[in-house]
Amino acid sequence: MRCKYSFGYELVSKGRVFVYDYLSILYLVTSIDLSDNKLSGEIPMELTSLIKLGTLNLSMNHLTGNIPTNIGNLESIETLDLSKNKLSGSIPQSMVSLTFLNHLNLSYNNLSGKIPTGNQFNTFVDPSISEGNPGLSSCPLPIVCQDNVGAPQVPSGDGGEDDDSKLEKLQFVISLVIGFCAGFWGVFGTLAMKRSWRYAYFHFLDKVKDAVFYFVPAIGTYLQKRS
Asked: Which residue spans traverse the membrane (predicted)?
């Protein structure tokens, strides 16, 4: 390639000169890999005119500035790797329209702001896609999704009512045990400690027993006479 004109490119091959018009041929480019070079400066806006581009790899360079805002024009792009540069600013919202994009790597830059959501971006759940950009927030970064973090949700259903019911049952059992212990020791403990009370108590029971034994036959005799 000998020189570059504003309207195209001049290629010298086998002694012949070929001039390619930018609009007539370059838009047909489908793959660009300039990774691991010493490229610097901003990403040329002209790259976004390559609507047939399927692969763009500019990783491991020294590129600075922002990602072109109209990068969404690369409607055929499937692989985009801009990792390990010095890019800054936010991720353009127009990238959401890249519906053929299935491989994305923006790691280790100086990008900031929220990661766009929608379309293909909802499928990029690998944290390595955006790691190394401390200023980025939102999924898929592990330190993100803070906007969606709220108070813990209470499970729906009757869980709360079951807990209240169990608490009431426990309180009833405890009250029953305390009442039984108090009543048992209040009566039998006293009888065990005082002999006079014990004699009086059992004497009273004997009288009640005699009264019942006398009363029941009397009732029976009375009912037989009535019949």
From this structure: 172-193
